[in-house]
Amino acid sequence: MPRGDLKALQLARLQDTVARVANVPFYKVAFARLGVGPDSIKSLDDIRRLPFTTKEDLRQQYPLGFLAVPRSAVARYHGSSGTTGKPTFVAYTARDLQMWADLCSRFLVAGGLKPHHTVHVAFGYGLFTGGFGLHYGIERVGAAIVPASSGNTPRQILLIRDLDAEVLISTPSYALQIAEVAREQGLTPSDLPLKYAHFGGEPWTEDMRLEIEAQLGIEAYNNYGLSEVIGPGVSGECHLRDGMHIQEDHFVVECVDPETLEPITDGSYGELVITALTKEAFPLLRYRTRDIAALEGCPCDCGRTSIRMSRIVGRTDDMLIIRGVNVFPSQIEEALLRVEGTAPHYEIVIERPAALDEVTVRVEVRPEIFSDSMREMQILKEKLVREIVSVTGIRARVELVSPQTLQRTPGKAKRVIDLRKA
Ligand code: ADP
Ligand code: ZN
After folding, report:
1. 212 lies in a domain?
2. Which ligand lies nearest to the CA atom of residue 202 in the structure?
3. Which ligand is nearest to the CA of 414?
4. For residue 142, is it within any domain?
5. What is the Å distance from ligand 1's center to 224 Cα?
6. CA 317–ligand 1 middle distance (angstroms)
7. How far is 332 from 362, CA to CA, in rounded Å?
8. Is residue 53 domain-resident?
9. Residues 160, 230: one domain?
10. How far is the CA of 236 from the centre of ligand 2 (A)?
11. Atom 25 in ligand 1: residue holding the nearest Cα
12. Which residues are within 8 A (CB) of 8 and not within 5 positions of it... i.e. 6 or more apart?
């Protein structure tokens, strides 16, 4: 859609959404406080007159204070996976579910999904939006689904092989685990039928993409979303894989400075703030995602006219402030993957033994490199320390651990262990 038409559609849909949420108690109060209402939105820039919505607001309105339709109109509930505390619930009408399936089908098709493919879904089916969200998107495309859900990795591999799945849906960290177990079983990438994968749900780096692609013999695509906004389907990569196209006919995405909340317009990193334009049951205005990314406005060569977002470098709540320097776990990942010899399994431990924070990065050594030679291990460690300094600016302690000793999870990886709060 030409950008002018897209903007006009966004404006009309924004006006409609503001009118629809005017009776949601939270927005009623906020609109009165700010002196705004449905008539205040004359241009898209007027979105800045609307109130933000935060995770804390959702908690205060727990469980369903933001519902904008009668309970009888709700067709399904989901919840956030609770990565950062108590879950929050979201709701969908039947029309919301249709729209969500459309949104997921778009990024799947942009990333190569064809109706003749068989798709293995290793996302959990449950309150988490990943499983069901992708499921219905795949169905919309007309491909065949293996709803494997999460866990039991050997069984996942059996299903992938015996049912000839060409496409894998999971978190990137779980894909690595599948690769690892396949290797233990003596399988090579060519023994697996997989060709494509669509990953989301957690931050990952470009080097991690190359690593997983090599280990599984696939082409991997990134997609983004969050339950408060809809689930997967907010954005996803096209075949050029240079940023995720935001589905702007359904969402307005702003990028703001998380401290001042002022807009960031020069393409640098900030917090994404998302307004859903078409949701009926649970439309949130200016939801502060706490996800840090940059927006790219210049047109993509694929022909889609939407703006794109970068990878999520981290969440504001995951951001480590180490001796005054802001560091995201994904930067540590980037440093680790630059050094030959370590496996992409790591965790970051933060302690505050005295006044200052201390960071220890535990990383697994690759089985073929793992050695009794203290000297070799010392050299590897020093390389890692240097690389971490060069990417993040902080000096961390590096602890090399034997292959396969760090905990694996079937869903989102837990990278940070913060002992300062203990
Ligand atoms: P939560 O993890 O907060 O309990 P969700 O299950 O809704 O809730 O997960 C949404 C979050 O997952 C996003 O806010 C974001 O932090 C992360 N996420 C989702 N997709 C991606 C992605 N492609 N890259 C990085 N992070 C992602
Ligand atoms: Zn594109």
Report:
1. yes
2. 1
3. 1
4. yes
5. 7
6. 12
7. 11
8. no
9. yes
10. 9
11. 203
12. none
